[in-house]
Protein backbone atom coordinates (compact mmCIF):
# COMPACT_ATOMS: atom_id res chain seq x y z
CA UNK A 1 0.00 0.00 0.00
CA UNK A 2 1.16 3.56 -0.84
CA UNK A 3 4.43 2.63 -2.52
CA UNK A 4 6.81 5.35 -3.68
CA UNK A 5 6.17 6.66 -7.17
CA UNK A 6 9.34 6.41 -9.25
CA UNK A 7 7.92 6.85 -12.76
CA UNK A 8 7.62 10.29 -14.31
CA UNK A 9 4.64 9.81 -16.59
CA UNK A 10 2.77 6.96 -14.87
CA UNK A 11 2.78 5.12 -11.55
CA UNK A 12 5.43 2.56 -10.48
CA UNK A 13 5.33 -1.01 -11.81
CA UNK A 14 6.11 -2.94 -8.59
CA UNK A 15 7.56 -6.40 -8.01
CA UNK A 16 8.33 -8.05 -4.66
CA UNK A 17 11.44 -10.21 -4.15
CA UNK A 18 11.62 -12.55 -1.14
CA UNK A 19 14.95 -13.49 0.49
CA UNK A 20 15.65 -16.02 3.25
CA UNK A 21 18.69 -15.98 5.50
CA UNK A 22 21.07 -18.87 6.16
CA UNK A 23 21.50 -19.46 9.92
CA UNK A 24 25.29 -19.81 9.96
CA UNK A 25 26.82 -17.15 7.75
CA UNK A 26 23.75 -14.83 7.77
CA UNK A 27 23.86 -14.69 3.97
CA UNK A 28 20.62 -13.62 2.22
CA UNK A 29 19.50 -15.85 -0.65
CA UNK A 30 16.77 -15.02 -3.13
CA UNK A 31 13.79 -17.33 -2.56
CA UNK A 32 11.45 -16.09 -5.28
CA UNK A 33 9.75 -13.14 -7.01
CA UNK A 34 6.14 -12.16 -7.47
CA UNK A 35 4.76 -11.08 -10.80
CA UNK A 36 5.11 -7.42 -11.87
CA UNK A 37 1.92 -5.38 -11.54
CA UNK A 38 1.84 -2.43 -13.91
CA UNK A 39 1.01 1.10 -13.03
CA UNK A 40 -0.10 0.95 -9.39
CA UNK A 41 1.11 2.03 -5.96
CA UNK A 42 -1.27 -0.41 -4.23
CA UNK A 43 -0.48 -3.79 -5.77
CA UNK A 44 -2.16 -7.03 -4.60
CA UNK A 45 0.40 -9.64 -5.63
CA UNK A 46 -1.03 -12.99 -6.64
CA UNK A 47 2.01 -15.29 -6.76
CA UNK A 48 2.42 -17.15 -3.45
CA UNK A 49 5.62 -18.40 -1.85
CA UNK A 50 5.46 -21.92 -0.42
CA UNK A 51 7.96 -22.54 2.38
CA UNK A 52 8.54 -25.03 5.17
CA UNK A 53 7.55 -23.89 8.65
CA UNK A 54 9.07 -25.18 11.89
CA UNK A 55 7.92 -23.75 15.19
CA UNK A 56 11.32 -24.47 16.71
CA UNK A 57 13.39 -22.60 14.10
CA UNK A 58 13.82 -18.90 13.45
CA UNK A 59 13.38 -18.18 9.74
CA UNK A 60 14.43 -14.61 8.87
CA UNK A 61 12.74 -13.10 5.83
CA UNK A 62 13.36 -9.98 3.77
CA UNK A 63 10.93 -8.53 1.24
CA UNK A 64 12.45 -6.11 -1.29
CA UNK A 65 10.30 -3.96 -3.57
CA UNK A 66 11.35 -2.64 -6.98
CA UNK A 67 9.78 -0.52 -9.69
CA UNK A 68 10.43 -2.56 -12.84
CA UNK A 69 11.61 -0.41 -15.74
CA UNK A 70 12.69 -2.99 -18.33
CA UNK A 71 12.67 -6.70 -19.16
CA UNK A 72 16.04 -7.23 -17.40
CA UNK A 73 16.09 -9.88 -14.60
CA UNK A 74 19.00 -7.97 -13.01
CA UNK A 75 17.54 -6.10 -10.01
CA UNK A 76 20.18 -3.36 -10.06
CA UNK A 77 18.66 -2.17 -13.35
CA UNK A 78 15.38 -1.27 -11.59
CA UNK A 79 14.39 1.37 -9.02
CA UNK A 80 14.52 0.22 -5.39
CA UNK A 81 11.27 1.04 -3.51
CA UNK A 82 12.26 -0.14 -0.04
CA UNK A 83 12.21 -3.34 2.01
CA UNK A 84 10.72 -5.05 5.06
CA UNK A 85 12.33 -7.52 7.47
CA UNK A 86 10.45 -10.04 9.64
CA UNK A 87 10.48 -13.70 10.68
CA UNK A 88 8.13 -16.40 9.45
CA UNK A 89 7.07 -16.90 13.09
CA UNK A 90 6.13 -13.22 13.31
CA UNK A 91 3.73 -13.57 10.35
CA UNK A 92 2.24 -16.82 11.61
CA UNK A 93 2.00 -15.52 15.19
CA UNK A 94 0.17 -12.30 14.22
CA UNK A 95 -3.59 -11.98 14.67
CA UNK A 96 -5.14 -14.08 11.90
CA UNK A 97 -1.62 -14.79 10.55
CA UNK A 98 -1.70 -11.34 8.93
CA UNK A 99 1.25 -9.00 9.47
CA UNK A 100 1.27 -5.34 8.43
CA UNK A 101 4.60 -3.48 8.62
CA UNK A 102 6.06 -0.27 7.24
CA UNK A 103 8.44 -0.53 4.28
CA UNK A 104 11.82 1.05 5.11
CA UNK A 105 15.18 1.57 3.44
CA UNK A 106 15.03 4.93 1.72
CA UNK A 107 16.15 7.64 4.17
CA UNK A 108 13.75 10.51 4.65
CA UNK A 109 10.95 8.95 2.61
CA UNK A 110 7.71 7.26 3.63
CA UNK A 111 7.82 4.06 1.59
CA UNK A 112 4.34 2.72 2.35
CA UNK A 113 3.35 -0.52 4.09
CA UNK A 114 3.31 -4.20 3.22
CA UNK A 115 0.68 -6.74 4.30
CA UNK A 116 1.80 -10.38 4.42
CA UNK A 117 -0.58 -13.24 5.16
CA UNK A 118 0.33 -16.87 5.80
CA UNK A 119 -1.84 -19.91 5.51
CA UNK A 120 -0.99 -23.50 6.28
CA UNK A 121 -1.37 -25.80 3.31
CA UNK A 122 -3.98 -28.35 4.41
CA UNK A 123 -2.25 -31.34 2.89
CA UNK A 124 -5.30 -33.47 3.57
CA UNK A 125 -5.47 -33.63 7.35
CA UNK A 126 -8.91 -35.25 7.41
CA UNK A 127 -9.74 -38.61 8.92
CA UNK A 128 -12.99 -40.51 8.52
CA UNK A 129 -14.95 -42.54 11.02
CA UNK A 130 -16.83 -45.32 9.20
CA UNK A 131 -19.02 -48.24 10.21
CA UNK A 132 -20.15 -51.18 8.09
CA UNK A 133 -22.50 -54.16 8.45
CA UNK A 134 -23.22 -57.13 6.15
CA UNK A 135 -26.23 -59.29 5.27
CA UNK A 136 -26.60 -62.88 4.13
CA UNK A 137 -22.90 -63.61 3.64
CA UNK A 138 -21.98 -67.05 2.32
CA UNK A 139 -21.68 -69.75 4.97
CA UNK A 140 -18.10 -71.02 4.92
CA UNK A 141 -17.76 -73.07 8.10
CA UNK A 142 -18.79 -76.70 8.22
CA UNK A 143 -20.16 -76.38 11.75
CA UNK A 144 -21.87 -73.08 12.55
CA UNK A 145 -21.87 -69.94 10.43
CA UNK A 146 -18.98 -67.78 9.11
CA UNK A 147 -16.67 -65.54 11.21
CA UNK A 148 -16.44 -62.53 8.86
CA UNK A 149 -13.98 -59.61 8.72
CA UNK A 150 -13.23 -56.91 6.12
CA UNK A 151 -9.90 -55.92 4.55
CA UNK A 152 -9.55 -52.48 2.86
CA UNK A 153 -6.99 -51.71 0.12
CA UNK A 154 -6.17 -48.43 -1.61
CA UNK A 155 -5.06 -48.50 -5.24
CA UNK A 156 -1.65 -47.17 -6.24
CA UNK A 157 -0.62 -45.23 -9.36
CA UNK A 158 0.59 -48.43 -11.05
CA UNK A 159 -2.69 -50.32 -10.50
CA UNK A 160 -1.42 -52.41 -7.57
CA UNK A 161 -3.21 -52.42 -4.19
CA UNK A 162 -1.89 -51.65 -0.68
CA UNK A 163 -3.69 -52.88 2.44
CA UNK A 164 -4.76 -49.98 4.64
CA UNK A 165 -7.23 -51.38 7.20
CA UNK A 166 -8.58 -54.63 8.67
CA UNK A 167 -11.73 -54.78 10.78
CA UNK A 168 -12.10 -57.06 13.78
CA UNK A 169 -13.65 -60.54 13.36
CA UNK A 170 -17.33 -60.96 14.30
CA UNK A 171 -17.85 -64.58 15.34
CA UNK A 172 -20.49 -67.00 14.06
CA UNK A 173 -22.84 -64.80 12.03
CA UNK A 174 -23.80 -64.18 8.41
CA UNK A 175 -25.15 -60.70 9.34
CA UNK A 176 -22.22 -59.04 11.16
CA UNK A 177 -22.08 -55.44 12.41
CA UNK A 178 -18.47 -54.30 12.66
CA UNK A 179 -17.28 -51.61 15.07
CA UNK A 180 -16.76 -48.11 13.69
CA UNK A 181 -13.12 -47.38 12.81
CA UNK A 182 -11.11 -44.24 12.12
CA UNK A 183 -8.64 -43.95 9.24
CA UNK A 184 -6.83 -40.97 7.71
CA UNK A 185 -7.95 -39.94 4.23
CA UNK A 186 -4.32 -40.17 3.14
CA UNK A 187 -4.12 -43.84 4.12
CA UNK A 188 -7.51 -44.64 2.59
CA UNK A 189 -7.03 -43.07 -0.85
CA UNK A 190 -3.89 -40.93 -0.74
CA UNK A 191 -6.12 -37.86 -0.68
CA UNK A 192 -7.53 -38.70 -4.15
CA UNK A 193 -11.31 -38.90 -3.75
CA UNK A 194 -11.91 -40.86 -6.96
CA UNK A 195 -9.22 -43.50 -6.50
CA UNK A 196 -10.48 -47.10 -6.28
CA UNK A 197 -10.82 -48.62 -2.82
CA UNK A 198 -11.07 -52.41 -2.84
CA UNK A 199 -12.78 -54.21 0.06
CA UNK A 200 -12.45 -57.97 0.58
CA UNK A 201 -14.65 -60.06 2.86
CA UNK A 202 -13.08 -63.09 4.56
CA UNK A 203 -14.18 -65.86 6.90
CA UNK A 204 -11.66 -66.10 9.73
CA UNK A 205 -10.06 -69.48 10.46
CA UNK A 206 -7.90 -70.25 13.46
CA UNK A 207 -5.09 -71.72 11.35
CA UNK A 208 -4.70 -68.50 9.35
CA UNK A 209 -6.03 -69.91 6.09
CA UNK A 210 -8.95 -67.46 6.01
CA UNK A 211 -11.62 -68.25 3.39
CA UNK A 212 -12.36 -65.63 0.76
CA UNK A 213 -16.09 -64.80 0.70
CA UNK A 214 -16.03 -62.04 -1.93
CA UNK A 215 -15.12 -58.44 -2.71
CA UNK A 216 -16.42 -55.09 -3.94
CA UNK A 217 -14.91 -51.74 -4.95
CA UNK A 218 -15.82 -48.18 -4.03
CA UNK A 219 -14.16 -44.76 -3.69
CA UNK A 220 -13.92 -42.04 -1.08
CA UNK A 221 -16.37 -39.93 -3.09
CA UNK A 222 -18.97 -42.72 -3.10
CA UNK A 223 -18.49 -43.47 0.59
CA UNK A 224 -18.79 -39.79 1.47
CA UNK A 225 -22.45 -39.84 0.42
CA UNK A 226 -23.02 -41.60 3.73
CA UNK A 227 -25.74 -44.10 4.48
CA UNK A 228 -27.90 -44.38 1.33
CA UNK A 229 -28.94 -46.81 -1.39
CA UNK A 230 -25.63 -45.98 -3.15
CA UNK A 231 -23.66 -47.44 -0.28
CA UNK A 232 -25.05 -50.98 -0.29
CA UNK A 233 -22.51 -53.18 -2.06
CA UNK A 234 -22.92 -56.64 -3.52
CA UNK A 235 -20.14 -58.94 -2.38
CA UNK A 236 -18.95 -60.86 -5.46
CA UNK A 237 -16.77 -63.97 -5.59
CA UNK A 238 -15.38 -64.02 -9.19
CA UNK A 239 -14.72 -67.79 -9.10
CA UNK A 240 -18.32 -68.59 -8.16
CA UNK A 241 -19.61 -66.07 -10.67
CA UNK A 242 -17.66 -67.81 -13.45
CA UNK A 243 -18.90 -71.27 -12.50
CA UNK A 244 -22.54 -70.78 -11.58
CA UNK A 245 -25.08 -69.34 -14.01
CA UNK A 246 -27.59 -68.55 -11.28
CA UNK A 247 -25.04 -66.88 -8.97
CA UNK A 248 -26.30 -63.50 -7.73
CA UNK A 249 -23.85 -62.53 -4.95
CA UNK A 250 -22.24 -63.76 -1.75
CA UNK A 251 -24.18 -61.26 0.40
CA UNK A 252 -24.18 -57.47 0.73
CA UNK A 253 -22.16 -54.96 2.77
CA UNK A 254 -23.79 -51.72 3.86
CA UNK A 255 -22.16 -48.48 5.03
CA UNK A 256 -23.91 -47.44 8.27
CA UNK A 257 -22.15 -44.15 8.93
CA UNK A 258 -19.44 -41.88 7.52
CA UNK A 259 -18.11 -38.94 9.57
CA UNK A 260 -15.29 -36.64 8.46
CA UNK A 261 -13.01 -35.32 11.21
CA UNK A 262 -10.44 -32.67 10.39
CA UNK A 263 -7.25 -33.06 12.41
CA UNK A 264 -6.40 -29.60 13.71
CA UNK A 265 -2.83 -28.36 13.80
CA UNK A 266 -0.83 -26.15 16.16
CA UNK A 267 -1.11 -23.29 13.65
CA UNK A 268 -4.92 -23.52 13.60
CA UNK A 269 -4.89 -22.49 17.27
CA UNK A 270 -2.26 -19.78 16.79
CA UNK A 271 -4.24 -18.38 13.87
CA UNK A 272 -7.37 -18.41 16.02
CA UNK A 273 -5.59 -16.14 18.50
CA UNK A 274 -4.18 -18.51 21.14
CA UNK A 275 -1.28 -16.72 22.84
CA UNK A 276 1.87 -18.40 24.11
CA UNK A 277 3.05 -16.84 27.36
CA UNK A 278 6.75 -17.16 28.05
CA UNK A 279 8.20 -17.04 31.58
CA UNK A 280 11.89 -17.32 32.48
CA UNK A 281 13.30 -18.60 35.78
CA UNK A 282 17.02 -18.26 36.48
CA UNK A 283 19.09 -20.17 39.03
CA UNK A 284 20.88 -17.79 41.45
CA UNK A 285 22.39 -20.45 43.74
CA UNK A 286 25.95 -20.12 45.04
CA UNK A 287 27.15 -23.22 43.14
CA UNK A 288 27.17 -21.04 39.98
CA UNK A 289 30.27 -19.24 41.30
CA UNK A 290 30.87 -15.56 42.07
CA UNK A 291 29.57 -13.46 39.11
CA UNK A 292 32.65 -11.24 39.18
CA UNK A 293 34.95 -14.24 38.46
CA UNK A 294 35.50 -15.46 34.87
CA UNK A 295 34.97 -19.08 36.06
CA UNK A 296 31.43 -18.28 37.19
CA UNK A 297 28.50 -19.43 35.05
CA UNK A 298 27.00 -15.97 35.80
CA UNK A 299 30.18 -14.12 34.82
CA UNK A 300 29.30 -10.75 33.32
CA UNK A 301 31.66 -10.72 30.39
CA UNK A 302 31.41 -7.35 28.60
CA UNK A 303 32.28 -8.99 25.26
CA UNK A 304 30.06 -12.04 25.07
CA UNK A 305 26.96 -13.55 26.65
CA UNK A 306 27.40 -16.12 29.41
CA UNK A 307 25.66 -19.51 29.17
CA UNK A 308 22.53 -18.18 30.90
CA UNK A 309 22.26 -15.27 28.48
CA UNK A 310 22.86 -17.46 25.45
CA UNK A 311 20.24 -20.05 26.43
CA UNK A 312 17.74 -17.33 27.26
CA UNK A 313 18.18 -15.56 23.93
CA UNK A 314 18.14 -18.77 21.86
CA UNK A 315 14.79 -19.92 23.21
CA UNK A 316 13.21 -16.52 23.89
CA UNK A 317 13.77 -15.02 20.47
CA UNK A 318 11.71 -17.77 18.87
CA UNK A 319 8.89 -17.89 21.42
CA UNK A 320 8.45 -14.12 21.50
CA UNK A 321 6.90 -14.18 18.00
CA UNK A 322 3.85 -15.97 19.46
CA UNK A 323 3.25 -13.53 22.32
CA UNK A 324 1.50 -10.37 21.15
CA UNK A 325 2.36 -8.05 24.04
CA UNK A 326 6.02 -9.21 24.25
CA UNK A 327 5.89 -8.80 28.07
CA UNK A 328 7.68 -11.67 29.81
CA UNK A 329 7.72 -12.38 33.56
CA UNK A 330 11.32 -13.07 34.63
CA UNK A 331 11.97 -14.79 37.96
CA UNK A 332 15.01 -15.85 39.95
CA UNK A 333 15.43 -18.52 42.61
CA UNK A 334 18.00 -19.48 45.24
CA UNK A 335 19.27 -15.99 46.19
CA UNK A 336 19.31 -13.72 49.24
CA UNK A 337 17.52 -10.49 48.49
CA UNK A 338 18.26 -6.97 49.72
CA UNK A 339 17.69 -5.28 52.07
CA UNK A 340 17.29 -8.01 54.74
CA UNK A 341 18.96 -10.99 53.06
CA UNK A 342 15.91 -13.26 53.07
CA UNK A 343 16.22 -16.28 50.74
CA UNK A 344 13.71 -16.37 47.90
CA UNK A 345 12.79 -19.06 45.39
CA UNK A 346 10.59 -16.86 43.21
CA UNK A 347 11.72 -13.24 43.08
CA UNK A 348 11.14 -10.78 40.23
CA UNK A 349 14.36 -10.01 38.35
CA UNK A 350 13.18 -6.43 37.81
CA UNK A 351 12.73 -6.01 41.58
CA UNK A 352 8.96 -5.52 41.30
CA UNK A 353 7.07 -8.52 42.76
CA UNK A 354 3.71 -6.97 41.81
CA UNK A 355 4.75 -6.67 38.18
CA UNK A 356 7.60 -9.04 37.23
CA UNK A 357 7.09 -8.38 33.49
CA UNK A 358 10.01 -7.28 31.30
CA UNK A 359 9.63 -5.84 27.83
CA UNK A 360 10.97 -8.23 25.20
CA UNK A 361 13.97 -10.52 25.53
CA UNK A 362 16.21 -7.43 25.81
CA UNK A 363 14.23 -6.34 28.86
CA UNK A 364 14.67 -9.78 30.44
CA UNK A 365 18.44 -9.66 29.80
CA UNK A 366 18.68 -6.20 31.34
CA UNK A 367 16.75 -7.27 34.47
CA UNK A 368 18.95 -10.39 34.76
CA UNK A 369 22.15 -8.31 34.73
CA UNK A 370 20.68 -5.79 37.16
CA UNK A 371 19.69 -8.42 39.71
CA UNK A 372 23.10 -10.13 39.48
CA UNK A 373 24.53 -6.86 40.85
CA UNK A 374 22.03 -6.60 43.72
CA UNK A 375 21.31 -10.11 45.08
CA UNK A 376 23.59 -12.57 46.85
CA UNK A 377 23.87 -16.04 45.31
CA UNK A 378 22.74 -18.59 47.89
CA UNK A 379 20.70 -21.81 47.90
CA UNK A 380 19.20 -24.41 47.94
CA UNK A 381 18.07 -25.21 44.37
CA UNK A 382 14.27 -25.38 44.59
CA UNK A 383 12.23 -25.62 41.37
CA UNK A 384 8.74 -26.14 42.81
CA UNK A 385 8.05 -22.45 43.69
CA UNK A 386 8.62 -21.13 40.13
CA UNK A 387 6.68 -24.06 38.60
CA UNK A 388 3.77 -23.35 40.96
CA UNK A 389 4.03 -19.63 40.16
CA UNK A 390 3.38 -20.26 36.44
CA UNK A 391 0.82 -22.99 37.25
CA UNK A 392 -1.28 -20.45 39.19
CA UNK A 393 -1.58 -18.34 36.04
CA UNK A 394 -2.16 -21.36 33.79
CA UNK A 395 -4.92 -22.62 36.11
CA UNK A 396 -6.85 -19.40 35.61
CA UNK A 397 -7.15 -19.72 31.80
CA UNK A 398 -8.08 -23.23 30.76
CA UNK A 399 -10.23 -22.25 27.78
CA UNK A 400 -7.42 -22.70 25.25
CA UNK A 401 -6.88 -18.96 24.69
CA UNK A 402 -3.46 -19.08 26.37
CA UNK A 403 -0.65 -21.58 26.79
CA UNK A 404 2.31 -21.11 29.14
CA UNK A 405 5.94 -22.05 28.57
CA UNK A 406 8.36 -21.86 31.52
CA UNK A 407 12.08 -21.84 30.76
CA UNK A 408 14.20 -22.81 33.79
CA UNK A 409 17.96 -22.31 33.40
CA UNK A 410 19.93 -24.02 36.17
CA UNK A 411 23.40 -25.24 37.04
CA UNK A 412 22.15 -28.44 38.35
CA UNK A 413 21.55 -30.48 41.36
CA UNK A 414 17.98 -30.07 42.50
CA UNK A 415 17.17 -29.91 46.25
CA UNK A 416 13.38 -30.32 46.27
CA UNK A 417 12.94 -33.33 43.97
CA UNK A 418 9.77 -34.65 45.66
CA UNK A 419 8.01 -31.25 45.65
CA UNK A 420 9.11 -30.60 42.04
CA UNK A 421 7.68 -33.93 40.88
CA UNK A 422 4.44 -33.14 42.68
CA UNK A 423 4.33 -29.70 40.98
CA UNK A 424 4.97 -31.21 37.54
CA UNK A 425 2.29 -33.90 37.96
CA UNK A 426 -0.19 -31.14 38.94
CA UNK A 427 0.96 -28.88 36.10
CA UNK A 428 0.51 -31.67 33.51
CA UNK A 429 -3.24 -31.04 33.75
CA UNK A 430 -2.74 -27.33 32.90
CA UNK A 431 -2.00 -25.52 29.63
CA UNK A 432 1.74 -25.35 30.23
CA UNK A 433 5.10 -26.83 29.25
CA UNK A 434 8.45 -26.64 31.06
CA UNK A 435 11.85 -26.38 29.38
CA UNK A 436 14.94 -26.97 31.53
CA UNK A 437 18.39 -26.01 30.26
CA UNK A 438 21.23 -27.32 32.42
CA UNK A 439 24.39 -25.17 32.31
CA UNK A 440 27.81 -26.03 33.68
CA UNK A 441 29.57 -29.36 34.31
CA UNK A 442 27.22 -30.99 36.87
CA UNK A 443 25.60 -34.42 36.58
CA UNK A 444 22.04 -33.92 35.39
CA UNK A 445 20.59 -37.38 36.15
CA UNK A 446 17.68 -35.91 38.13
CA UNK A 447 16.74 -33.68 35.18
CA UNK A 448 16.57 -36.68 32.84
CA UNK A 449 14.10 -38.23 35.28
CA UNK A 450 11.93 -35.07 35.20
CA UNK A 451 12.01 -35.09 31.38
CA UNK A 452 9.72 -38.14 31.37
CA UNK A 453 10.60 -39.24 27.83
CA UNK A 454 11.70 -42.68 29.03
CA UNK A 455 9.50 -43.16 32.10
CA UNK A 456 6.43 -40.96 32.68
CA UNK A 457 6.99 -38.87 35.82
CA UNK A 458 4.93 -39.70 38.93
CA UNK A 459 4.42 -38.40 42.45
CA UNK A 460 2.86 -40.35 45.32
CA UNK A 461 1.45 -42.93 42.92
CA UNK A 462 -0.10 -40.36 40.54
CA UNK A 463 1.30 -40.21 37.01
CA UNK A 464 1.58 -37.03 34.94
CA UNK A 465 -1.35 -36.76 32.55
CA UNK A 466 1.03 -35.85 29.71
CA UNK A 467 4.75 -35.28 29.19
CA UNK A 468 5.38 -31.55 29.69
CA UNK A 469 9.09 -31.33 30.54
CA UNK A 470 11.94 -31.11 28.04
CA UNK A 471 15.51 -31.09 29.39
CA UNK A 472 18.78 -30.41 27.53
CA UNK A 473 22.33 -29.94 28.84
CA UNK A 474 23.81 -26.70 27.49
CA UNK A 475 27.28 -28.28 27.16
CA UNK A 476 26.03 -30.56 24.35
CA UNK A 477 25.60 -27.44 22.20
CA UNK A 478 28.78 -25.51 22.81
CA UNK A 479 30.61 -25.26 19.55
CA UNK A 480 34.37 -25.68 19.97
CA UNK A 481 34.96 -23.42 16.96
CA UNK A 482 33.18 -20.62 18.79
CA UNK A 483 30.30 -20.37 16.28
CA UNK A 484 27.55 -19.85 18.82
CA UNK A 485 24.93 -18.85 16.26
CA UNK A 486 24.53 -22.34 14.81
CA UNK A 487 24.85 -24.13 18.13
CA UNK A 488 22.19 -21.91 19.76
CA UNK A 489 19.86 -22.49 16.79
CA UNK A 490 20.30 -26.24 17.45
CA UNK A 491 19.62 -25.77 21.17
CA UNK A 492 16.39 -23.86 20.48
CA UNK A 493 15.35 -26.46 17.93
CA UNK A 494 15.78 -29.34 20.37
CA UNK A 495 14.02 -27.73 23.34
CA UNK A 496 11.13 -26.26 21.34
CA UNK A 497 10.46 -29.16 18.96
CA UNK A 498 8.18 -30.95 21.44
CA UNK A 499 6.10 -27.88 22.34
CA UNK A 500 3.53 -28.03 19.49
CA UNK A 501 2.75 -31.70 20.28
CA UNK A 502 2.52 -30.98 24.05
CA UNK A 503 0.26 -28.03 23.24
CA UNK A 504 -1.99 -30.19 21.01
CA UNK A 505 -2.16 -32.99 23.60
CA UNK A 506 -3.56 -30.51 26.15
CA UNK A 507 -6.15 -29.16 23.67
CA UNK A 508 -7.18 -32.67 22.60
CA UNK A 509 -7.61 -34.04 26.12
CA UNK A 510 -9.73 -30.98 27.00
CA UNK A 511 -11.72 -31.14 23.75
CA UNK A 512 -10.79 -27.52 22.93
CA UNK A 513 -11.21 -26.58 19.26
CA UNK A 514 -9.34 -23.65 17.68
CA UNK A 515 -11.24 -20.35 17.52
CA UNK A 516 -12.13 -19.28 14.01
CA UNK A 517 -9.50 -16.96 12.57
CA UNK A 518 -10.56 -13.32 12.23
CA UNK A 519 -11.96 -12.52 8.77
CA UNK A 520 -9.30 -12.22 6.08
CA UNK A 521 -8.25 -8.77 4.95
CA UNK A 522 -10.14 -7.50 1.91
CA UNK A 523 -8.66 -4.56 0.05
CA UNK A 524 -11.02 -1.61 -0.43
CA UNK A 525 -12.77 -1.66 -3.79
CA UNK A 526 -11.48 1.04 -6.12
CA UNK A 527 -14.33 2.82 -7.86
CA UNK A 528 -13.61 3.20 -11.55
CA UNK A 529 -14.57 6.61 -12.88
CA UNK A 530 -15.92 6.52 -16.38
CA UNK A 531 -16.09 9.48 -18.72
CA UNK A 532 -19.25 9.75 -20.74
From TrEMBL:
Entry keyword annotation includes Cell inner membrane: no
Any GO CC annotation of this UniProt entry: plasma membrane
Occurrences of domain VWFA (ranges): 277-478
Organism field: Lanius ludovicianus (Loggerhead shrike)
Keywords (A to Z) from UniProt: Calcium, Metal-binding, Repeat
Domain C2 residues, every copy: 1-101, 110-233
Gene Ontology MF, one: metal ion binding
Pfam families: C2, Copine
UniProt similarity note: Belongs to the copine family.
GO biological process: cellular response to calcium ion
Domain of life: Eukaryota
Database matches in InterPro entries: C2_dom, C2_domain_sf, C2B_Copine, Copine, Copine_C, VWF_A, vWFA_dom_sf
Protein name as it appears in the record: CPNE8 protein
PANTHER family, per database record: COPINE, COPINE-8
PROSITE patterns named among the record's database cross-references: C2 (PS50004), VWFA (PS50234)
Amino acid sequence: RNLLDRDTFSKSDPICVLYTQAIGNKEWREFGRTEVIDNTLNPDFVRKFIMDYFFEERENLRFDFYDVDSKSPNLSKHDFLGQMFCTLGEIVGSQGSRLEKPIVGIPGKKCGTVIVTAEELGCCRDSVLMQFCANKLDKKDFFGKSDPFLVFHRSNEDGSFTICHKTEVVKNTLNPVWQAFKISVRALCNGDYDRTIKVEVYDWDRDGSHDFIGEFTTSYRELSRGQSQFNVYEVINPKKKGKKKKYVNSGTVTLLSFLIETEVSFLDYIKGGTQINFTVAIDFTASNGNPSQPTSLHYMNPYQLNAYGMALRAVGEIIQDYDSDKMFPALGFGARLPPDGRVSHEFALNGNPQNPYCHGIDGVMEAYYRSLKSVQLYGPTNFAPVINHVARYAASVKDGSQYFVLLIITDGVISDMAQTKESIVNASKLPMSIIIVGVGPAEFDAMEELDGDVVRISSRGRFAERDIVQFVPFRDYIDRSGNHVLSMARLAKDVLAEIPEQFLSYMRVRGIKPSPAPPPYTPPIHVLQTQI
